[in-house]
Amino acid sequence: MRHLATRTTRTSHHRIIGALLAGLLLAAGTAAPAVAAPLPPPPVQQAGDGLALTPPMGFNNWNSTHCRAEFDEAMVKGIADIIVEKGLRDAGYEYVNLDDCWAKPQRDADGRLEADPRRFPNGIKAVADYVHDKGLKIGIYTSAGTRTCDSVGLPGALGHEYSDARQFADWGIDYLKYDNCNNQGVDARQRYTTMRDALAATGRPIVYSICEWGENKPWEWAGELGNLWRTTGDIDDTWASMLSIMKRNLPLAAAAGPGHWNDPDMLEVGNGGMTDTEYRTHFSMWSVMAAPLLIGSDLRTADPATLEILTNREVVAVDQDPLGKQGTVLSSDDGRWVVAKEMRDGSRVVALFNETGGAQRVSTTAGAAGLPRAAAYTMRDLWEHRTYNTAGAVSATVPAHGTVLLRVAVDPEWAAHPPAVELGLEGNLLAEAGRTVALTTTVTDLGRTPAARVSAALTGPSGWRVGAVTPNGTPALPTGSALTTHWRVTAPPGTPAGAYGLTFTARYRTPAGRHVRSAVPFRVQVVVAPPTGVSLLSDLPQLSATNGWGPVERDTSNGESAAGDGNPLTIGGTVFAKGLGVHADSAVEFYTGGACRTVTARVGLDDEEGAGGTVAFEVLADGTRVASTGVLTNAMPARALTAEVSGAQVVRLTVTDGGDGIDSDHADWADLRIAC
Questions:
Q1: pTM higher than 0.90, yes or no?
Q2: Residues 54-90 pLDDT 10s
Q3: How far apart, in whole angstroms, are the C-alpha atoms of residue 36 and residue 158?
Q4: 130 in Cβ contact with 75 (< 8 Å)
């Protein structure tokens, strides 16, 4: 396993250490461990082996337990029970996969693997039998190296491929995740080809998951070897991590198909690091990308919202469509993404995804999604479970970090469904307490049939004043027409800074008299005007913050994934008392209310990562770039940065990877000040 961000255990640190040790051995004249000569080549196991004709679905323990003691036989059996009892098996989840730390640290005298007797006292076969008796399948883990990725370093399969594969088959294993740690520099294709041949030699059908971290572009060659291949390092339970991985996986659609899938890593749904809206986006986009759906949360503590996401059969059906097409990007302007996936029945699933921190209109057409011209189409919302008709527009106002997932089809029965309406919202969503802001809503008929008796309503928190200043109703809306209403919204004086939820609701009737209600939630951010004079930004409230690894830290480096685990801000040996510690990709926003002039800082890579990392810093004023550094490396001293931000309502500080992938990109905004 390889993480996009750095960790102290099971990370690229151990991969680097393994490479260094191999280098030291070679420098000293000692050969790296030899790879056993393979047996005569068996029939080649390729994508045509009939396995994984749709993306694998199941559970893997790593994201929720890592190598903690709770990962044991009782836990695995309990998960199998829950998969059956909670309807997950019936929804399509079938694999129960054991990740690292199931084995003893050493092989036996005959070179065979042994299960850790504390974790699995009855051995792996007994667990496999239990899982099989539940109508499920079981997976196991090892690495294409001398040791696995855990800091203890359990036995890897390099040089033992045929004997290990034989053991897995004898235990009844159905799925192998084959990692990339401690690989001794042996060519990746050679290592993964040897295990493919070893699995084929067993005669047992075993799904082969190549976990090579995307380092050698496996999408270009692994389809001849395995059933799925990781396209990136490990996912983390953060919005930034999920988004970064999604963006790296989306362009690889041409490589995916039945029996050979791009794998952007396991699901984080339910682990607690994202909102339910973000988890629905995670699940939606993985399904549109035809990605494996491997649950990474602890099902023993899964709440109803988590189970509702994981068992949405309409979304699962998108992932499992037998045509096997990965969705392709139609547009991604300013963080407003449209991704379309062709389905076997001729329909198209369209994901309208909003990357930004505020509600946004995201739109396309049925024709742009690949459907033929028609008088009208049916459009099914896969999260609302409602069907509408549309004249061809595929559009929605999507909440921040949200996704509207629509299945659009040519259907002669389109008129049986109510017209789709789009709810639009414009205006200033930043409000100082006690001051009125103006908002404008629109209700637009996208359908081929008219909407009748249309009304719009805007509701806010208790104590807020929300009032329409223009009419908020109309007797009818023909196709393409809109009801526009202007509103005034006031947060009460003394309202604390923060995000507050409002709801825009439209009600209308179909030509047949059916009542329809549609609603869009959105947030108004109550903000505090910045103080006059020069202030340290690490002491001021943040409007929003995203970070590639753990939280943004105030006055310390990024550290690891936990809050408050950073070190003194240090760039090129110089220590700074104040500032922000971040990890690419990162964005931190501050409300400036048009009252500030300049932002200054000393920026660079923090010394806590040694020689690793490359990043670029940018300052944006109301979305316009006003300062940037270009690519910085760890060898560079702190760079002075000054940005002119006069008149801006919002200042955004971003750190992106320097073009070599996100790894060890710990960056500091040191001595960060704003003049207002």
A1: no
A2: 999 999 999 999 999 999 999 999 999 999 999 999 9
A3: 8
A4: no
